[in-house]
Design goal:
Shape: elongated
Largest sheet: 7 strands, mixed
Radius of gyration: 25 Å
CATH architecture of the largest domain: Alpha-Beta Complex
Structural class: alpha/beta
CATH superfamily of the largest domain: Spore Coat Polysaccharide Biosynthesis Protein SpsA, Chain A
Low-confidence stretches: none
Order of helices and strands: EHEHEHEHEHEHHEHHH
Number of strands: 7
Bound molecules: uridine-5'-diphosphate, magnesium ion
Number of domains: 2
Strand content: 5-15%
Oligomer: single chain
């Protein structure tokens, strides 16, 4: 078995060397073949120079340097692309994650899990700006995605290689990988990890991240539940909205025709028109979504299902 450790780096010059030494100690003691992939996410300090120096001494290091800052999600995505190991470990480059936790992750993986996620049960970050919003976000993500973990934000995770192949990441979505993976039918587990305060450098995020996470959650929820059947969501909204509008319009018409009531001073008429139009828009949106879903899957030959394994002489039509 080969391990690939993926570490995003954005202005972490004081942390890299110490992290590398600590990580190397742990990995050497494990006895597996391994590689360490540092993704330099367009650092503006000397991080890249530090990485280059270490890389020259250790051929098991891979350094991928971005042209500019693309964000942690992009960095992790690049790590997945360049990884050649059977198991991929992701962790932060600021030494807040403890490499000594890695063996316990591997034990959990050996029990048959496809993805193991860390839980920073004793998180060492400021309460108001980080831990409180994160507590709320974790609750919401847990309820909305139906994948119940305590901590979605912990970067320390391990993945079986096949899991990372099928996942495309955008925005702030690295924290939703367990949800996406579980939506694809992977077995997900959680282990408690040691979390340490940041000693050098600054955190790259603040409270503003919460909003972005919530928006991404919306996307993930939609993709997981309805991406292959958008008309089910938009069509339903359309029928409800259009139906209510139609009923109101019907009542108004009867009142006008049979009871001679005037419509000119009835704001309800506007509401009826609005609801009917919204209903039509929603249904059209759903139909367009259906077209998009077909283009998405059929143009890339992407099946709408995921297969764990095939027994016997099963063969895809396209292989012949
Ligand atoms: N990071 C990155 N690109 C960014 C922001 C952060 O590669 O645009 C890296 C950063 O260097 C660190 C990890 O992502 O290794 C986590 O960042 P940070 O420690 O600031 O997040 P926090 O632990 O405060 O949530
Ligand atoms: Mg950190």
């Amino acid at each position: 078995m080969k391990l690939s450790v993926v570490i995003p780096i954005y202005n972490e010059e004081e942390n890299i060397k110490a992290l590398y030494d600590e990580l190397k100690g742990v990995l050497d003691s494990l006895g597996h073949d391994y590689e360490i992939i540092f993704i330099d996410d367009g650092s503006s300090d000397t991080s890249l120079a530090v990485l280059e120096t270490i890389q020259q001494q250790d051929p098991r290091l891979v350094v991928v340097s971005f042209r500019r800052n693309f964000g942690q999600t992009a960095a992790m995505s690049a790590g997945f692309d360049y990884a050649t190991g059977d198991v991929i470990v992701t962790m932060d480059g600021d030494m807040q994650n403890d490499p000594h936790d890695i063996p316990r992750f591997l034990e959990k993986m050996a029990e048959g899990y496809d993805l193991v996620s860390g839980w920073r049960h004793d998180r060492q970050d400021p309460f108001l700006s980080r831990r409180l919003p994160s507590m709320l976000a974790n609750k919401i993500i847990s309820v909305v995605t139906g994948v119940h973990l305590h901590d979605y934000g912990c970067t320390l995770k391990t993945f079986r290689k096949e899991i990372t192949r099928g996942i495309r990441l955008y925005g702030e979505m690295h924290r939703f990988i367990p949800a996406i993976a579980s939506g694809m039918g992977s077995r997900v587990a959680e282990v408690k990890v040691n979390h340490r305060p940041r000693r050098f450098g600054k955190s790259k995020y603040g409270i503003s991240r919460t909003i972005r996470v919530i928006l991404d959650l919306l996307t993930v929820k939609f993709l997981l539940s309805y991406a292959t059947r958008p008309i089910q969501v938009f069509g339903l909204l359309g029928i409800i909205s259009g139906g209510i509008g139609f009923c109101i319009a019907l009542v108004l018409t009867i009142e006008r025709q049979f009871f001679g009531m005037s419509l000119a001073n009835r704001p309800l008429l506007l509401l009826a028109v609005l609801l009917i139009f919204m209903g039509m828009q929603f249904i059209s949106l759903g139909l367009l979504g259906e077209l998009q879903a077909r283009t998405y899957h059929e143009s890339q030959n992407k099946p709408i299902y995921t297969v764990r394994k095939v027994l016997g002489r099963g063969r895809l039509d396209g292989d012949r």
